[in-house]
Design a protein that fits this description.
With 80 residues, this protein is an all-alpha fold. It contains five helices and no strands.
Length: 80
Amino acid sequence: MCGVHPDYFARAFRTWFGAAVGAYVRRLRLDWAADRLARTEVPIVEIALDAGFADQSHFTRAFRHQVGVTPGDYRRTIRQ
């Protein structure tokens, strides 16, 4: 699709953006989810599914890994 070999694209992407394509996309999805957690009362499971995660536990693990707290704790902290 880009007219270059997938390995070349992956290396160039990592060089330019500082992360693998998958990690970059996951970060964007988690940033979007963090914004929804902060701005809405939408249930966490719905945000997880809307962000493309298989289930809430998968979302919680990824969110905790990136942000350092669970989505529920994040929502409670950001709202105080």
